[in-house]
Structures are given as C-alpha cells and as structure tokens.
Design a protein that fits this description.
- By secondary structure, this protein is an alpha/beta fold.
- It is built from 5 helices and 9 strands; from the N terminus they run E-H-E-H-E-H-H-E-H-E-E-E-E-E.
- It has a 5-stranded parallel beta sheet. Strands 6-9 form a two-stranded antiparallel sheet.
- Strand 2, helix 2 and strand 3 form a beta-alpha-beta unit.
- Helix 2 runs parallel beside helix 4.
C-alpha cells in the first residue's frame, strides 16, 4: 500500500502496522517511500532506544509517556538517536492538550487538536481553530476553567 502512495510524496507515515513488532516495523520502514514514524510502540525513552535505526521518528503523547517530564525524556532520546519527533494527543479537553503545546517547538510535526473534538470543553486557554495553536498568555500552563453560563429563573 505504501508503494502505491509514493507519487503522493507523503511527509511521513505514522504506525503503518500494528504495535508490538519493532523488527517488522523496521522492515516496513526500510522499504517505505515515506519516513515511518512509530506511534503506539512509543511510551518511554527505552522504547525509542529499541526503535532507533528501525524507524525514522516517533510520536510522543503526554498521557502515554506519563507527563511533561517523561515526554521530554522521550523527545531527548529521539533527538539523540537522530529521529524526528511528532507530538500528538488524544481526544480530550484543553487541560489535557495545553501541556503538550509547551513542547511543540521540539517537534517536527504537531497534532494537538484533541480539544477541538469536544462539543463542550470545560477549559479555555488555547486557540487553534485556524490550524495554528496559540496560548492566550495566562500564567502557569495557561489553562482556566470555563464558568458555566448563568442559569435564568
């Protein structure tokens, strides 16, 4: 399937096979016309070391890595191994996405749109509806609770 997409000149292919088989992932990456970025196979710096030389990059998500400090360790391991970094998220509120926004400058690809998948987000502090993530400059992580609308009698 990847060979048939070569003419599309894809920037990368994320996790093209099921997780759990780094040797097979390396086999696919060696034959792929686009760089292969591991996703579900990556949670820790040790995972990066295990995949070094097999894939071109890794996707880092804060929940899977265990938070900002752990994600930074994964990013540093990837950089040390010469791998590109994609920064991802899972569907969730602004509170879950904003910490990753603070790491965006360390990634080649950034996919932090989990908050845009909610009908109602109880948090605010980030904008990104036009494709560009912007923190609003609030202190700390930059997240504030959205006050519920006043109830009318």
């Amino acid at each position: 399937a990847l060979d048939s997409m070569a003419e599309l000149k894809l920037d990368a292919v994320q996790q093209p096979i099921a997780a759990g088989n780094p040797a097979r992932m390396g086999w696919v990456a060696a034959r792929s016309p686009a760089p292969v970025v591991a996703d579900d196979d990556v949670a820790t710096a040790a995972d990066v070391e295990r995949l070094a030389g097999a894939v071109h990059g890794v996707t880092v998500t804060l929940p899977r890595s265990g938070g900002i400090v752990a994600a930074l360790q994964v990013i540093r391991a990837a950089s040390a191994a010469g791998m590109t970094v994609a920064l991802g998220c899972q569907p969730g509120s602004t509170l879950g996405v904003v910490p990753a926004v603070h790491l965006a400058s360390r990634a080649t690809w950034v996919d932090l749109d989990g908050h845009l998948m909610l009908d109602s987000d109880p948090w605010t502090g980030i904008d990104g509806t036009d494709g560009t993530l912007r923190l609003d400059g609030s202190p700390g992580l930059g997240v504030r609770s959205v006050s519920p609308p006043a109830m009318q009698a």
